[in-house]
Amino acid sequence: MKSPDPAPPDGGHARRARPLLGTLVEIAADAPPAVFTRAFAAVEKVQALMSYHDPASELSRLNREASAGPVSVSAWTGEVLRAALDLAAETEGVFDPTVAPRLTALGFLPPTAGAPRADGRATWRDVELASRNRVRFRRPLRLELGGIAKGFAVDRAVEVLQKAGVAEGMVNAGGDLRVFGSVEWPVEIRHPGQPGLSAASVPVCNAAMATSAGYFARRRHAGKDVTALLDGRTRQPLDPDTSVSVMAPTALLADALTKVVFALGPASETLLQRHGASALVLDSHGFRAIPPILPHAT
Questions:
Q1: How far is CA 208 from each of CA 87, 173, 212, 220, rounded to the nearest angstrom?
Q2: Nearest to 40 by CA among 138, 158, 204, 142
Q3: DSSP 8-state code for residue 143
Q4: What residues contact residue 277 under an 8 Å CB cut-off, 6+ apart?
Q5: What pLDDT does residue 298 have?
Q6: Which value, to the nearest 10 degrees, does the dihedral of the CA atoms of residues 99, 101, 105, 107 take?
Q7: C-beta neighbour count of 197 within 10 angstroms
Q8: Residue 194: which residues within 8 A CB-CB, separation 6 or more?
Q9: Count of CB atoms within 10 A of residue 131's CB?
């Protein structure tokens, strides 16, 4: 569902990659091995806390227990959940982290063992996040943070690198990426109709970029192609032949905002500007930028 790996600029950046978050996470930086290890460990921690597929994760525990009473979670899980709920409120449910049952019905997520059957009326409004990161569900539901946690993991890895004194580099989790320092990384964005071809090149410098599209993750459902990209208000799949890339200050924001732009299109412009972000939308008619100019897109 993501863009191809960015081509590295000239320079002495070492590159390391590990399979994490259901994709390949790559880090490029001029750093000693121990710093790479700590950066990957931050990504591993996010995976352990927020994996939908791991029954031992905090997210899975929430899905099993939070409808019966408050459940305490770690600061990182609380931070991602707060960001998800804030964006859900800001978009009136376009972004909704409670769409997991619909994704299961479409075949993109497995059934959750041990969790109560989700109430079909449940939305983000049924998730309560209180002080000290205590979470309660007003009715049975299932959270899925895949649309925002991957970007958060990228941000945490960048944080590790910067705290270690690394001046510039890049972290890329399957197309959710962030570049820091003075270096400029050209990112090629796939054509949604011909994903083997590049449709646009966007140099990224001191920013994050994420791309969501349906070219590598679509299924047949009720006689038509669908993807895991949903409008949270209707629970309906969005156009499988469109690609949305968002540039934002953090990878968490870029990751989450791609789903909002997918659903709202040009109506997302005010929201993007509020977050210091911009988007590039590619479909069968070509591409458009929101706001009208995405810097340096070619």
A1: 18, 11, 14, 32
A2: 158
A3: -
A4: 246, 247, 248, 249, 253, 254, 257
A5: 43
A6: 80
A7: 9
A8: none
A9: 6
Per DSSP, which regions of 93-184 are E strands?
127-130, 134-137, 169-173, 176-180
Whole-model pTM: value is 0.92
Instruction: Say what angle helices 149-163 and 75-90 make with each other, to 10 degrees.
Output: 130
Report DSSP letters for 245-269, one per residue.
EEEESSHHHHHHHHHHHHHHGGGGH
Helical (H) or strand (E) element with 23: strand 23-29
Tokens of 78: 């609380």
Q: Are 27 and 36 in contact (CB under 8 A)?
A: yes
pLDDT tens, residue by residue, 252-276: 999 999 999 999 999 999 999 999 9
CA distance 270 to 192: 25
Instruction: Look up tokens 């609380």; give the residue.
Output: 78
Q: Which residues of the chain have pLDDT under 70?
A: 1-12, 192-197, 214-219, 222-223, 293-298
Between the two ends of the chain, the Cα-to-Cα distance in Å is 21
Cα atoms found within 13 Å of the Cα of residue 21, Cβ hemisphere only: 28
Structure tokens given for 197: 């071809």
Q: Which of 198, 220, 211, 197 is nearest to 243 (CA)?
A: 211
SS3 273: helix
Q: Where are the alpha helices (DSSP H) in the chain?
A: 33-50, 58-65, 75-90, 100-105, 149-163, 251-264, 269-274
